[in-house]
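Supplementary Methods. Inverse-folding protocol.

Structures were first reduced to a discrete structure-token string of length 240. This string, shown here, constituted the complete conditioning input.
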């Protein structure tokens, strides 16, 4: 284990990624993993840790002031995280060690078959954290357009079903970053197999768009609520 005090560039990079993740979660899901504990401007001391063994980018922290440890195994591509409470009398390092040995073993946020992480797999740093304001993600706030080839591929992926090539459809795509967990796309296609308006959760991984069979939600309340958010952050609106 590599242990240090102060703000190293590696720790600051990981924290910036976590801040961006929290802002994304707040915009699209109206909360962060800290829930009611998240107050912009709140400061606390934490032991920050991240993988140093070549595994996907990760970040965790233990704070006895907040009373929790959290671990995010891959901030850009994995939605799950693990949270555990610290115990009375804990110091941050002992909380981290118990978190690693206990919570990771009980509910590992790792691909099936991955080896149990060891303390030596992590760099650890003690750092003061100040929770940032939960502004919209930079891609939305700054209205950063993506390359046309990328958005055209997205539209092609969500167009008509192969057996209905002449259908009509409507897509709305918000501004997004390639590091977003997923991109919520409004899709309406009355002639498709599922004619209900829906939100499809698209992922852009290694230059390709994909979504799983269950990566959509056609609940009317959710669709209406998310559509309003997409309209505020609209990058492209396609009607064909």
């Amino acid at each position: 284990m590599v242990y240090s005090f102060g703000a190293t560039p590696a720790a600051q990079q990981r924290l910036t990624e976590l801040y961006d993740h929290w802002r994304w979660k707040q915009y699209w899901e109206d909360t962060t993993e800290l829930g009611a504990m998240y107050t912009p401007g709140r400061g606390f001391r934490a032991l920050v840790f991240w993988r140093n063994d070549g595994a996907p980018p990760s970040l965790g922290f233990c704070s006895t002031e907040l009373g929790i440890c959290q671990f995010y195994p891959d901030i850009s591509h994995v939605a799950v995280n693990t949270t555990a409470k610290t115990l009375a009398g804990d110091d941050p390092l002992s909380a981290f060690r118990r978190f690693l040995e206990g919570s990771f073993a009980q509910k590992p946020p790792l691909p099936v078959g991955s080896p149990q992480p060891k303390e030596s797999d992590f760099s650890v740093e003690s750092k003061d954290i100040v929770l940032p304001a939960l502004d919209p993600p930079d891609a939305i706030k700054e209205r950063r357009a993506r390359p046309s080839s990328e958005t055209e591929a997205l539209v092609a992926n969500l167009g008509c079903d192969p057996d209905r090539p002449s259908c009509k459809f409507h897509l709305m795509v918000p501004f997004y970053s390639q590091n977003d967990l997923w991109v919520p796309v409004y899709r309406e296609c009355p002639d498709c197999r599922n004619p209900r308006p829906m939100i499809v959760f698209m992922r852009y991984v290694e230059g390709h768009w994909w979504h799983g069979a269950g990566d959509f939600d056609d609940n009317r309340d959710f669709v209406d609520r998310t559509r309003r958010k997409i309209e505020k952050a609209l990058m492209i609106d396609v009607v064909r």
